[in-house]
Specification:
Helix 2 (84-100) links the parallel strand 3 and strand 4. A five-stranded mixed β-sheet has the order 1-2-3-4-5, with helices on both faces. The protein has two helices and five strands. It is of the alpha+beta class and 132 residues long. The protein has helices at 14-31, 84-100, and strands at residues 35-42, 53-60, 63-71, 108-117, 121-125.
C-alpha cells in the first residue's frame, strides 16, 4: 500500500531516550530476579556533588548492585563512554548509598555498567568498574 511508510522515526529528546534506556535496564534486572531499591539516587546535596548520581540500585539475595546506564547510537562509542573520573564518582556514590542505608552493609557489592543502543540492544558488564 502506498500510503504506509516503510520506517517510522520517532523524535524524542536525549533526556527521554536516556530515561527509556534506564527503564529497559531496570526491567532487564527485574526479569533476572533483582529488586530495584533506588533509581536516580542523588548522592549528597545539590545537583553537582563529588558523589554524583546512581542510575539505579538493585538487590538479589544478599547482593547489592550499583548500576550505571550508558546510551549510545554507535557501538564504538561504548569504549569511551565511562571515564576513570566517572568510575570513581560511581564507586563513591555506591559507598555513600551504603552509609545512608546501613541495612545493606552486610551485602556483597557489585558495580555494573549497561550499554544500550536503542531500541533494544542491551549489554550488561558485571563488575565493570573493577576492570581497570
Amino acid at each position: 500500500m502506498m500510503f504506509m511508510k516503510k520506517h517510522w522515526k520517532l523524535k524524542i529528546s536525549n533526556k527521554q531516550s536516556g530515561a527509556l534506556a534506564e527503564f529497559l535496564c531496570r526491567m532487564y534486572m527485574r526479569f533476572s530476579g533483582y529488586r530495584i531499591v533506588a533509581k536516580n539516587y542523588i548522592c549528597g546535596s545539590g545537583k553537582k556533588t563529588p558523589f554524583g548520581e546512581l542510575d539505579f540500585v538493585a538487590t538479589r539475595g544478599k547482593q547489592i548492585v550499583f548500576c550505571e546506564v550508558k546510551k549510545r547510537q554507535q557501538n564504538e562509542d561504548f569504549l569511551k563512554a565511562l571515564s576513570h573520573t566517572q568510575q570513581q564518582r560511581i564507586m563513591r556514590g555506591g559507598l555513600y548509598f551504603l552509609r545512608q542505608n546501613p541495612q545493606y552493609k552486610q551485602y556483597t557489592i557489585q558495580f555494573d555498567v549497561f550499554f544500550v543502543r536503542l531500541p533494544f540492544h542491551i549489554e550488561r558488564i558485571k563488575n565493570a568498574l573493577f576492570l581497570n
